[in-house]
Amino acid sequence: MYSLKHLKSLPTLSIGQTDDLKIETPTKRIWLSRCTIEDGEPYNNRVSVENFVNGSWIVTESYEAK
């Protein structure tokens, strides 16, 4: 798990509709949401971990960065 401080210190590689891509490898992506619970997120500072599985990006983990 990555801390909020660490993720915010990284450059944004790409901007999605609601998330910033912070880490990307050929098989993993780490996204940090710009939305809050007021926007409908389950918690603030949601991190989504995507893994490349059988030709598709699949969210395999989600957690609150602290």
Helices and strands in order, then pairings?
Elements: H1 4-9, E1 14-15, E2 19-24, E3 28-33, E4 46-53, E5 56-64
Antiparallel strand pairs: 1-2, 2-3, 3-4, 4-5
Low-confidence stretches: none
Number of DSSP helical runs: 1
Structural class: mainly beta
Shape: globular
Instruction: Measure the end-to-end span.
Output: 10 Å
Q: Average pLDDT value?
A: 97
**Over the alpha carbons, how many angstroms does the gyration radius reach?**
11 Å
Percent of residues in helices comes to under 10%
Q: What does this entry look like structurally?
A:
With 66 residues, the chain is mainly beta. Helices cover 9% and strands 47% of the residues. It has one helix spanning 4-9; strands at residues 14-15, 19-24, 28-33, 46-53, 56-64. Strands 1-2-3-4-5 form a 5-stranded antiparallel beta sheet. The termini are close together. The model has no long low-confidence stretch (mean pLDDT 97).
